[in-house]
Amino acid sequence: RRVGVLISGTGTNLQALMDQTSSPSSSAEIVLVISNRPGVQGLKRASLAGIQTRVVDHKLYGSRAEFDATIDRVLEEFKVELVCLAGFMRILTGMFVKKWNGKLLNIHPSLLPSFKGVNAQKQALQSGVRVSGCTVHFVAEEVDAGAIIVQEAVEVLSSDTEESLCERIRAAEHRAFPVAMELVCSGSVRLGEDGRIVWGKNY
Ligand SMILES: Nc1nc2ccc(CNc3ccc(C(=O)NCCCC(=O)O)cc3)cc2c(=O)[nH]1
Questions:
Q1: Residue 7 Cβ < 6 Å to ligand 1
Q2: Using one digit for the tens of pLDDT, what is the confidence trace for 18-42?
Q3: Is the CB–ligand 1 distance for residue 113 below 6 Å?
Q4: Helix axis angle, 41-48 relative to 12-21, nearest 10°?
Q5: Statement: the pTM of the whole predicted model exceeds 0.90
Q6: Is 147 left (phi over 0), alpha (psi -120 to 50) or beta?
Q7: Is 171 close to ligand 1, i.e. is its CB under 6 Å away?
Q8: What is the pLDDT of residues 142-163, one digit of tens each?
Q9: Which residue among 35, 68, 88, 89 has the greatest number of ligand 1 atoms within 8 angstroms of its CB, and so is best to mutate?
Q10: What is the rounded CA–CA span in Å between residue 175 and residue 44?
């Protein structure tokens, strides 16, 4: 399956997905990386791996709809079949999400539905939970509310700072995202008509 990855920054999750697709058993091939910001490290990672990159700078568009429409056009140009949001920090319009429904994955640094939105790790620390983690989900119009595909739990240590917890969760993200991408690309899991997750027979 032809995969497109949307990024906004360093692209450490992009690197994890690239590493996964370089294994011969992978059902996925990353054919395109789009960043909404120019010059970010994730673009360099992709170029180093010989993957096509494009920058669609949201500051150059008069509306979210025009920005999303340009992203969509580039994804179509590269015949992308599945889109992974890897640290992509722009909210996508309902129109875009509807068009790519069931083909749009995001990774969030908490065990959803806990701690939605930005600075999820800080929210976890401040709430005193002893376990947090990461979630890979299908993207729904409502932010961080889509059907859950994979989660990985991460212990919160009493000695944790926001930085140390972010680092431990990031390691979990780099395991969970590739697993979720393979599950969807291999057809083991999909999004049902009712917006709920549907698992193939062997799970
Ligand atoms: N409609 C839809 N689109 C998304 C776009 C990105 C992400 C990634 N996680 C994100 C979750 C939250 C944000 C956020 O609130 N950023 C500050 C506002 C940025 C802006 O003005 O755009 C960004 C990405 C998830 C979603 C989602 O669940 N649903």
A1: no
A2: 999 999 999 999 999 999 999 999 9
A3: no
A4: 20
A5: yes
A6: beta
A7: no
A8: 999 999 999 999 999 999 999 9
A9: 89
A10: 22
